[in-house]
Amino acid sequence: MRLDLYQAETARIAAEQGALLAQAKGILATGRGLTALEQSGVLHALQVLIENAIGKTKQLLKAQNQPVPVSGYDAFKALAQRGLLDQSDLAAWNAVIGLRNRIVHDYMNIDMDQVMALVAADKAQFIVQFLLKEITD
Fold this sequence. Notes:
Blueprint: H1 3-29, H2 36-63, H3 72-81, H4 90-105, H5 112-120, H6 125-132
């Protein structure tokens, strides 16, 4: 797939999933907690956003004829080394990749209070912004 088309699709998905997180944030702002179904929707939206960001990172590396790491952590590190991501952002990316890994593999040990705090504080917005931004070399 051409990089421009890939980035357009990641932006579409980011807008869609980001809107779901914004709805959850709005509900939380009213003081009402999320139902179990809504919480599952939040986890799914976060997982999709993070996986989408990892995929975009790998596509950007591929487009530059760079080795594409298997690990999401390594992919973001490589992107930062290429100057396409600020080095200071790596800690936040590592944290959300860890969250994605927990959602997928360690789902019985997710602290939903922490996830809801993340959503209420809009701390996943940087993922949406990364996906909406067209990055060229």
